[in-house]
Amino acid sequence: MGIDISIQIGGEAGQGIQTVGQLLSLVCQKAGLYVFAINDYESRVRGGESFLQLRIADRPIDAPYHRLHLLIALDRKAYDLHKSELDDGGLVMIDTEIGVEGDSVFTLPINALAKQAGGLITANTVAASACIGLLGGPLTLLNEVLEDLFGKKEKSVMDKNLMAASLGFKAVQLAKFQWAFSWQEKEPKGIMLDGAQSIALGALASDCRFAAFYPMSPATAIMSYLVSYGQKGLPVVVEQVEDEIAAVNMAIGASFAGVRSMTATSGGGFCLMTEGLGLAAISETPLVIVNAQRPGPATGMATRTAQADLLFAIYASQDEFPRFIFAPGTINEAYDTMQKAFLLSEKYQVPSIVLVDHFFNTSLYIADKPFQVPDRIERFYVTDQEISNPASYLRFQVTPDGISPRALPCNGDALVLVTGNEHSEDGHNSEAIDVRIAMADKRMKKIAAMTKEMKPPESYYGDAEMLLLGWGSSKGAIREAVDILRKYGMDAGCLHFVDIWPFPAQIVADMLKKKKRIVMVEGNMTAQLGRIIKEQTGIAYTHTLLKYDGRPFYPQKIVDQFMQ
Amino acid sequence: MIDISRYDSTFENKWCPGCGNFGILQAMKHALSSLTIPPEKVLIVSGIGQAGKTPHFIRCNMFHGLHGRALPVATGAKVANHDLTVLVSSGDGDCYGEGGNHFIHAIRRNPNITLLVHNNQVYGLTKGQASPTSSIGMITKLQPHGVHQTPFNPILVALSLGATFVARGFSGKIQQLSQLIQQGIQHRGFSIIDICQPCVSFNSINTYPWYQKRIYELDEATHNRSDLKHAMELATEWEERIPLGIIYQSQRPAFEDTIDALKTLPLVKQETQVDQLRTIMNNEHKRN
Q: Chain-wide mean pLDDT for chain B?
């Protein structure tokens, strides 16, 4: 067994949980370790009990660990709430002032040392440094991280933090921590970022130039990343608008005029966007919508996670129309999936919906593949030169594959006429029977080619007699659960779906035939993907491991639930 | 001037004979031709209602979208390509009812687009229900005891929100309306033209004679357009007298002017910044 350590920093929101977590994870990343962190907080800015749980390993990890090896309790409540989650031999690090005692308690005068270093504000550095010390890590790496973070500020800030680091480190020199390990100098395994950031970067790499949004957790972070990257000389406009209806319509307007556009929201906002989704469909305007899921219905739980909008995303519509649905499971998949969503949305002139969730957006990952930017962005519109007679251009020309050559307004002599009403080839309203049938058929005809664009689910021990099936952000947890089950001697594997709609039915049917057990592992109450598989392939799942408590999947808990 | 027939659409018009929309349509074509904006540079965005059908009857680019949602679509299109002259054709139900929130926030945002609201104080497309601007007491099949809500006052609301161009026209005064539309298009910022318009089929109160008795043109020589207080007084005139013309005009940066990324070429015409994108992705590496 290599390195696999779980550290939790708990306390009140605003107490410095993020700072301690950031320092620790940056040090580990610099040391060439893999890190993964979840953020757990209530829907409030200050107060309330929050935690960040950091997992450190020497192999890729995309899921949290179910027990704690080290709990850094920034207040008494964090100790009371989480001490029962300590693994055997685990430690609680807590300020001496709080006055907690016990076998597994390691007290440290954190605040006193911080004052000694120059101010209470450095308490987080003391705590992080003590933690590095317990893990057997080098102080030099922490000093480097502090230099990266504070090097540009006034010298006294840096000096105080270096002093705090030194004091915290010395204070634990005699302490024993059973998970301490020998740190080796290695190159970082990749960049460290949260899920929302990978979605934003993926959008930028797709040449997305316009984004409109209304703030809603956990989607807002995507937009704030777009705003900050947009200030770095990119042709990107991000606008906060009056509501989600404006967001989707504004994105459609910008896309109609020729720039790649998106919006991001959560389930409630997506409800408001549904009419706009239909408008994108009938006007055949490319559009990318990110739905960062959280538990519902209605407001539900704003800072918790869920995978329960899949069927809604597939079926949200007036009438029927084609769309793409993707649900990336890792940080690299999210970056790549955004590019695929933009590309295919434009190629087929249909909306693309990308499903992520609170867990994915707010968790910290290491991307072990670099984020590539293509030399050229492939675009799918025509200019006057490619239209035989621009004066009689037909925006909705019926073609064998259902895709009409798309001209842009104000880009030549071709006039572009688009309507959300049923329309004839020229874009004017029409309710004629033959026109209606031709247009509905034209739109739906795209599905055959769209389905061929769908990547099959990723198979991990796919030949096993028992398969766990999941989609989206639970990928890491399910794969790790498979590892554990296989260690227990079970012939288990998994399939993970990113490209969900149009459903690649034939491929999936082939992968599932003759399986003894098909276990749906989903963050909803009714096995939504399982129902889709049954509908599309006729193959019924045999078991379910469903979770709708608003919390993320833990590999061992999947296994435990399965054993029951 | 561009030959006005270049804006003629061959699509069959099904508005009722005598509808005020015809006058508005004529004024729109006249304004575009006078300003020599060719059809391919014009985008008319509309929502739902009889006013929403307008762009089908003018030869130019068209986005005929959802009920109430023309303004967001128009704003998005303008941001993407500010070379487009963007007009929005809406009605009292579409703009002041279903799309009321967008009306409010478009005023705050001040995009460089021109909004024409065909305000006939009744729902025409859905056959005669009360609209946000219907008079108190107006009896319809759906409001048999008469409308009890206070009418929405678009001019006063626009002024209170800091609108930079607020005008009122009348569908029966095509020349003046064309002038207002031209000035609205030339105004840098959001220009709002509320257009009084009789509905010959469903509004038996606000008829042509009803309007003819009340409307008067603001004297351009004496009316001070920058006087907000006076504009607000004019906005409350209705039952006795209805002022036509530019009620208020002021200057503040248009939405597009506040966006750095739009300082040069239209967004849609700019090059993809591959090198800059790579730098961003690489800096992510370095920062961590």
A: 96
Q: Are residues A219 and A317 in the same domain?
A: yes
Give yes or no: residues A164 and A281 share one domain.
no
| B58 contact residues in A (CB cutoff 8 A) | none
- Contact assignment for B63 to A253 by CB distance below 8 Å: yes
The answer to whether residue A375 sits within a structural domain is no
Nearest CA in chain A to B66: A420
In whole angstroms, give the CA distance from residue B91 to residue A415: 24
Q: What is the mean pLDDT of residues A270-291?
A: 98
Q: pLDDT tier at B288 (50, 70, 90 boundaries)? A: very low
Indicate the number of domains in chain A: 4
Which chain A residue has its CA at the smallest distance from B43's CA?
A409
Q: Give me the residue from B71, B104, B274 closest to A373, CB to CB.
A: B274
A316, A332, A367 — which closes off a domain?
Answer: A367
**Element housing B86 (H / E):** strand B85-91
Q: Which domain holds residue A75?
A: 4-189
| Domain limit, last residue, from A155, A189, A223 | A189
Q: How far apart are CA B25 and CA A118, in angstroms?
A: 74
The ipTM, to two decimals, is: 0.98
Identify the residue among A417, A421, A429, A431 best suited for mutation to test binding to B, counting B beta carbons within 10 A and taking the highest: A417
Residue A500 within any structural domain of the chain: yes
Q: Are residues A242 and B105, on separate chains, in Cβ contact within 8 Å? A: yes
User: Residue A476 is part of a domain; what is its CATH number?
Assistant: 3.40.50.920
Provide the chain A residues 199-218 that lie in CB contact (below 8 A) with chain B. 201, 204-205, 207, 209-210, 212
CB–CB of A229 and B280 under 8 A?
A: yes
Cα A522 to Cα A543: distance, rounded to the nearest angstrom: 11
Q: Residue A236: which CATH number?
A: 3.40.50.970
Which chain A residue's Cα is nearest to B57? Answer: A428
Query: Is residue A407 predicted with pLDDT exceeding 50?
Result: yes
Closest CA in chain B for residue A149: B287
Whether residue A21 contacts residue A50, with contact meaning beta carbons closer than 8 Å, is answered with no
pLDDT above 70 (res A507): yes
Which burial class, exposed, middle or buried, applies to B135 when counting CB atoms under 10 A from its CB (0-12, 13-18, 19+)? Answer: middle
Shortest Cα distance from B122 to chain A (angstroms)? 22
pLDDT band at A558 (very low <50, low <70, confident <90, very high): very high
**Residue A259 and residue B268: Cβ atoms within 8 Å?**
yes
Distance from CA of B66 to the nearest CA of A (A): 6
Residues of A in contact with B65 (CB under 8 A): 249, 252, 279, 283, 419-420
End-to-end CA distance of chain A: 26
Mean pLDDT to the nearest integer, A543-547: 97
Which residues 263-282 of A are in CB contact (within 8 Å) with B?
A: 275-276, 279
pLDDT digits 0-9 by tens, A145-192: 999 999 899 999 999 999 999 999 999 999 999 999 999 989 999 999
Are A109 and A244 members of one domain?
no
SS3 state at A10:
strand
All domains of chain B, ordered by start, with CATH? 4-260 (3.40.50.970)
pLDDT at B287: 46
pLDDT at A1: 61
Asked if the peptide bond before residue B39 counts as cis, ω within 30 degrees of 0, the response is no
Rounded Cα distance, A511 and A518, in Å: 11
A402-423: b (≥16 Cβ within 10 Å) or e: bbbbbbbbbbbebbbbbbbbeb
- State yes or no: pLDDT of A80 exceeds 50: yes
The answer to whether the Cβ–Cβ distance between B66 and A192 falls below 8 Å is: no
pLDDT of residue A84: 95
